[in-house]
């Protein structure tokens, strides 16, 4: 990464509420300079919209997929242990990315609950359970099963117990969340930080250089 200061990472965590706007460093991070020198403020939701746009563009470029027009409908997975504000921001990002059913005037249709029509949010443990059930050939076997889904992601850690009912008197398989618990600030990002801190401390003890404060270290060397 040639310019890490201009890169965004782990924006998903910041979408759960607006508390990031109280952090001066993050405010500066999400304030970009336009060509004319004016400031332009963006948000983690704006970044999410750009990611969705990039994914849609990637799909469009696949020759093996015939989309028959623009993609309007989507299922987007969200952590089980998240906030209503996070879900609203995901809906907003999907709309900004061009998803959602449109009316005759070309405007995205907003349903009574405020979500764009054609966008469905699916909790990540349920999505994992669907994939698991399909992989083992569970559907159509007239079974009931209770499973535990362990989801360690980049920013969150969730554990969910789901009941799957695919018995013959059920028209289609039913998924019921029996219990869910998670930590919204625990994931791969946190492990990475701990590892980096350990490595940086070890490097500093050997070389005397603080890799987290290279600018100060460079000034110190120049003054020697």
From TrEMBL:
InterPro entries: ATPase_NBD, Heat_shock_70_CS, Hsp_70_fam. GO terms for molecular function: ATP binding; ATP-dependent protein folding chaperone. SUPFAM superfamilies: Actin-like ATPase domain (SSF53067). The keyword Cytoplasm does not apply. Keywords: ATP-binding, Nucleotide-binding. Pfam families: HSP70. Belongs to the heat shock protein 70 family. This is Molecular chaperone DnaK. It comes from Candidatus Magnetoglobus multicellularis str. Araruama.
């Amino acid at each position: 990464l040639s310019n890490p200061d201009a890169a965004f990472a782990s924006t998903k965590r910041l979408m759960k509420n607006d508390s990031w706007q109280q952090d001066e460093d993050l405010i500066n991070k999400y304030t970009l300079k336009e060509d004319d020198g004016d400031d332009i403020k963006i948000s983690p939701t704006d970044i999410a919209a750009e990611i969705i746009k990039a994914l849609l563009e990637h799909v469009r470029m696949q020759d093996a997929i015939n989309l028959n027009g623009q993609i309007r409908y989507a299922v987007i997975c969200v952590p089980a242990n998240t906030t209503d504000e996070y879900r609203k921001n995901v809906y907003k990002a999907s709309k900004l990315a061009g998803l959602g059913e449109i009316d005759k005037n070309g405007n995205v249709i907003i349903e009574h609950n405020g979500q764009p029509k054609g966008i469905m949010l699916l909790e990540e443990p349920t999505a994992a359970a669907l994939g698991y059930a399909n992989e083992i050939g569970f559907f159509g076997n007239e079974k009931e099963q209770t499973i535990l889904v362990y989801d360690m992601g980049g920013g969150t850690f969730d554990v969910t117990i789901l009941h799957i009912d695919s018995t013959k008197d059920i028209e289609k398989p039913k998924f019921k969340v029996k219990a869910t618990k998670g930590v919204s600030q625990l994931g791969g990002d946190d492990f990475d930080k701990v590892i980096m801190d350990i490595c940086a401390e070890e490097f500093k003890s050997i070389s005397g250089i603080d890799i987290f404060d290279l600018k100060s270290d460079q000034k110190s060397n120049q003054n020697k």
